[in-house]
Specification:
20 helices, mainly alpha
Length: about 625
């Protein structure tokens, strides 16, 4: 009788617990006892429970009462399980597939070992010859260059990652290895072999090397104009140099070499659009690249702050002990462990720091361009951790814009930040903007309040410079001067106003970009270049408007604002020098790839939802 009552209690509890009651029912049927349940017992072996009306009680594995905390845990688990359903399932690999992967890895190791052995052998032989001719300083870069070129040609993806890592750190690495002009071009040892390899692969797979295709017409027009300048202006200077005085020596110049180098500076990094377009294959590659860029900016800014701290504490003297005009000149002798030449004369209020770059003005434009990349990651990365890292990097950019002494960085970094807020629509995204924006504003306010003297000195320096030489008037004067001195519609020769070509001949210092182009390639070349960058800007705008995913769209919008700003900026010449000469085309390659990644993610999500629907059926 006692056993029967106990079984009856179990049956009553099974009214709320259908699945558990099924197990009890099977046990009771074996013992040939009767129990109470609204569902008939299933025969052994157990089968799925037939549908029947039941109260909506949660299912547990024990007959204990369910508490409120247990209910919350069950809800959280159900939400997690729903999220997991949207992820595409990867089937386990079969034995044959695992063996194939092992064979592939073994083959890759053998190829790498063989290539490295050959490259090292050739490099040692070449190094011995270079050591005999130019000494150990010529041998070491030659050996390293041969090995790097061979590996970058074989592994273009890794080469492009190494290239983007080297760009912000190249100035520091250059002076640690040795102050050689060849080392200034060391980054091209990563870029050019990777570009050749990608060109061969794209040709083999019948993929276009020029992306986007809309650039074809303006690019060909610009190349045609530059070719005319190279052949008929630089070529004429090479074949018939200008006459000199009776007692004067003819200048040793290579005008054709200057023209080739000038063309390389003008358009040499345009193929980076295609390189990084093909480098990014999916969302994972995009996130790795964007986060790597933010980490590089953060590391560079920390090194820049360290440089300022060493100078402030007197560990590095800078130019504080210089005399006369040397107090205001950036010199390599004043270098402080990181980067290149600098000025640090606090007694005269003169501070120009180079950060991790060769010269201070390169550091200024690195900070300006970094504003766009850190903003993009800080407001659009899907991970909250990386959004915090992005905004932390943006904070270090603001700090370095103040302490570096670069007036243009002090003016343009906050200006670009406000421009990004307006043009990317982040002001309307209140849920994300309010906590992140207010946090960044709070940190900046604390930094300004704790260092009012530094901020006041930099602000006064900027205002005095603006009053002494207003930028708009300076740009107008440069246009007028170079328009008068231009020697025809095709200019005075490629490279004639390019700083990096001064070793090959006499160059003119033109401190604004479009007047520089006007002097070098004439009005025809300037109009062709404007057509090229305008086409790229319009194509990038239309491309980013096609993106549906909010995070991808926000990142693409930040890249488009960067492209728009640099395309028509004429103050100074950032498109001629690192890092903007690289980051401009690099940003375009990322932006143009994002619509494809957006489509991939939407297809994967639709496929996951379809698989989930099939499972429910």
């Amino acid at each position: 009788m006692g056993i029967g009552n106990w079984e009856l209690g179990i049956g009553n509890w099974a009214l709320g617990i259908g699945h558990w009651a099924l197990g009890i029912g099977q046990w009771a049927s074996v013992r040939k006892k009767k129990y109470f349940s609204p569902c008939p017992p299933a025969p052994l072996p157990p089968a799925p429970l037939p549908p029947c009306p039941m109260p909506h009680y949660p299912i547990t594995h024990s007959p204990l009462p369910i508490t409120h905390s247990a209910m919350l845990k069950l809800k959280k688990k159900s939400k997690r399980s729903k999220k997991k359903h949207f992820q595409p399932e990867t089937p386990p690999l079969s034995l044959q597939e695992r063996l194939a992967q092992k064979r592939k890895a073994t083959k890759a190791r053998k190829e790498f070992t063989g290539l490295l052995t050959k490259a090292v052998s050739v490099a040692i032989v070449a190094g011995i010859l270079l050591a005999v001719v130019g000494g150990i300083k010529a041998a070491v870069p030659g050996v390293a260059g041969i090995i790097i070129i061979a590996l970058c040609f074989k592994y273009p993806r890794q080469a492009l990652f190494a290239f983007i890592v080297y760009v912000p750190l190249g100035g520091t690495i250059t002076y640690y290895i040795g102050n050689s002009p060849i080392l200034q071009l060391a980054k091209d040892a990563f870029y050019i072999p990777a570009l050749i390899s990608i060109w061969q692969l794209s040709k083999k797979r019948r993929l276009p090397l020029l992306i986007p295709q809309a650039l074809k017409t303006p690019l060909y027009i610009l190349l045609g104009s530059c070719t005319i300048t190279l052949l008929f202006v630089n070529g004429a200077q090479q074949l018939s140099p200008p006459p000199v005085g009776l007692l004067q020596d003819a200048p040793k110049e290579i005008p054709l070499g200057m023209g080739i180098l000038g063309l390389k500076v003008l358009l040499g990094y345009l193929p980076l659009i295609s390189c990084y377009y093909y480098l990014i294959r999916d969302k994972r590659d995009f996130l790795i690249l964007s986060r790597l860029q933010v980490v590089l900016i953060l590391v560079s800014c920390i090194l820049g702050f360290l440089q300022y701290f060493l100078l402030l504490t007197g560990i590095c003297q800078g130019t504080r002990n210089a005399v006369g005009a040397d107090l205001f000149k950036a010199t390599l002798e004043a270098r402080c462990y990181i980067g290149g030449s600098l000025v640090y004369s606090p007694s005269q209020g003169m501070i120009r720091l180079p950060g991790t770059f060769v010269a201070p003005w390169q550091w200024a434009w690195f900070l300006i361009s970094s504003t766009f990349f850190t903003f993009a990651t800080g407001f659009s990365d899907p991970s909250i951790l990386w959004r915090i890292v992005g905004l932390g990097s943006l904070f270090t950019v603001f700090v370095n814009a103040v302490i570096s002494g670069q007036r243009i960085a002090l003016a343009l970094v906050p200006t670009c930040f406000v421009l990004l807020l307006l043009l990317t629509g982040q002001l309307g995204n209140l849920k994300r903007f309010i906590p992140l924006g207010m946090g960044l504003a709070l940190i900046l306010t604390i930094a300004v309040v704790s260092n009012p003297t530094v901020v006041q000195e930099r602000t006064d320096s900027f205002v005095s410079r603006w009053n002494a030489s207003p930028p708009q008037q300076f740009i107008v004067d440069q246009f007028e001067e170079n328009w008068k001195n231009s020697k025809g519609p095709f200019g005075s020769g490629l490279g004639r106003a390019t700083n990096s070509a001064r070793a090959l001949g006499q160059t003119k210092l033109v401190e604004t970009y479009y007047p520089k182009l006007l002097y070098e390639i004439g009005i025809c070349g300037v109009l062709a270049f404007l057509a090229l960058v305008t086409t790229l800007t319009v194509v990038c705008f239309r491309t980013y408007r096609l993106i549906k995913n909010r995070n991808f769209r926000s990142y693409a919008a930040a890249m488009w604002v960067f492209i728009l700003f640099i395309s028509y900026n004429t103050y100074y010449y950032p498109l001629d020098v690192d890092p903007v000469a690289v980051y401009y085309w690099f940003a375009a390659g990322i932006l143009l790839k994002l619509p494809e990644i957006d489509k991939q993610e939407r297809l994967l999500e639709a496929q996951a939802q379809g698989n989930q629907g099939k499972k429910k059926r």
